[in-house]
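Hi there, hope your week has been kind to you so far. Please have a think about how the structure follows from the sequence. I've dropped the whole record in just underneath, so have a look:

_____
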Amino acid sequence: MDEEIVKLTIHGKVKQYPKGITLKEISKEYEKDYNYPIIVAKRDGVTTELQKQVHDACDIEFCTARDNTGHRAYVRGLTMMMLKAMYKEAGRDKIECACVEYSLDSGYYCEVKGDITLSQRPEHSPGSHPGSPPRPTAAAT
């Protein structure tokens, strides 16, 4: 019995791959064509994670952090990591809600509600452990 094949259009060329192959596996073949790592793909114009499998014929476009789509996916991933770190450090039982409300220039306005105190010098920051080098401070003028 023959392996089922799917025809994909990538960079304007039609190629055949086994049905069920992941976009990540396909991206490895094309990463040399990009100056930056491939972060996500567009499948028929829809942004798709690389671990998704392909079962039907479609157009594929790969995106890096230099592309608008890739950059947005990268920022979303970092935002999710930040929220996960907040919950881990403070404890899920102490945070009622942690929300990224909106962007401000190149940063984000976040709101955290619960039984926690936010500070610029968290307990686990550089310079807070005994024996660690002190944090640099600005000289007063």
Remarks:
- The mean pLDDT is 86.
